[in-house]
Predict the 3D structure of the following.
Amino acid sequence: MIRVEHVSKAFHGKTVLHDVNLYVTDGEFLGIIGSNGSGKTTLLRIMSGEERPDEGNVSLRGRLLERWKVRERAQQLTVVSQEGLTPVPFSVYDVVMMGRHVYQGRFQPPSARDREVVEHVLAVTGLEGMSPQSVAQLSGGERQRVAIARALAQEPRVLLLDEPTTYLDIGYQLSVLEYVKKWQVAHGAAVVAVLHDLNLAAQFCERIVLMEGGHIAAEGAPSDVLQADILQRVYRTRPTIVRHPLSGVPQVLLGS
């Protein structure tokens, strides 16, 4: 699906990523974790094409990312940044409909299919009742939900999320990741999410990549990566690892 090969990147002479190799398959939910400054967001931006690597390359479905036409790539891949949406003076419905623009001709009105997709996305993301509201009147967390809904309406094969739960309270953190997970399973799409919450990463991701100093420090199933000795080395803290009583996935308890 999407392959990162020997990617390195520096800003102002400081290396942010060094010789990173990563492959994401169809139908996979991959989490990228790591401390601040470890290169998580830069890696995601390079995977999306927003940044170009200094060395190495990124390919999507076997074709180098830069060789895709903009519209074609947008139909395959989309990204939601941690900033979400600015408070634009458009309705929630209109903003989510913007996700369908990659399938429409210039000045072409929305098709029945476009309206069907948007109405379905609004329903499954719990935004149906907010459809006529102006995005400018919404809170930061609500705008983040609209940004994710717009991305889902785009029906990409790869969804890249940069800290999607940053502005959300606990309930919405769970609900957002739950409907992204359901959408991913239903469509067989790939999701790559940068996450700070290790417990959410363990709960929703089949595979986790742990970044440290621009390198991949560990990679594998949550139970392989979320181990006390690995986390102590990377995060400089002494965690206790327990099993979630319902799902059985590892959960991280932080000590002093």
Q: What stands out?
A: The two ends are 41 Å apart (CA to CA).
